[in-house]
Amino acid sequence: MDPNSPERVAFVSRALKWSTGGSSKLGHPKLHQLLAVTLWKEVLLMLVEYSASRGFRSEVDMFVAQAVLQ
After folding, report:
1. Alpha-carbon distance 38 to 69, whole Å?
2. What is the pLDDT of residues 20-68, one digit of tens each?
3. Nearest 5°: CA angle at 11, between 46 and 41?
């Protein structure tokens, strides 16, 4: 699903709620892992794009460190 899709938040929310109906009260671990990896990749791409447009090539690691430490 497109990250900019307005239905994405509702879809993910419904999927997470649906996964709590099984044996795990917190939801299916694999679904949570896949969602976390997907969101992590999107944040990483955003940081790379932001650092490329706002900083020097040698500062890419500083943008990542700043995001992690905040």
Report:
1. 20
2. 887 778 888 899 999 999 998 998 888 888 888 888 878 878 888 888 8
3. 25
